[in-house]
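pasting ATP-binding protein for the record, 126 residues
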Amino acid sequence: MTGDSFEFEAEPAQIRLVRSWARARLSAGDVPDEVAEDVVLITGELATNAVRHAAGPLRAVLICGDAAVWVGVEDAGGSAWFDPVVPEAAPAGTGLTLVAACSDRRGHFHRGDGGKTVWAEIPLVS
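structre below
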């Protein structure tokens, strides 16, 4: 299992850098192209939501395991997690329904420092 993280500012212009970082990390490993595309999409959506609704600085985390890729975005606080399991309850324009469609598991946890991590797990094999 390998992992890496990337710290970024809570600014919209940073989302492209986060996606590029994720793409570069995944291309260096044994992640199939179609899975890597989903992981980059999810990383961008989680980062976008953090930029819109949370406090910075932010950190994207990728962990590649034997069966799945785990991606998370850490923030220093902000709005509560929206559960994309019920898409009709999603606020307009949310990308979390895409996260739900492309991942097997997803969720969030609050950290002891007042921040939270929103995460998703994408299987390497469908």
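The chain has one domain: 2-123.
The mean pLDDT is 84.
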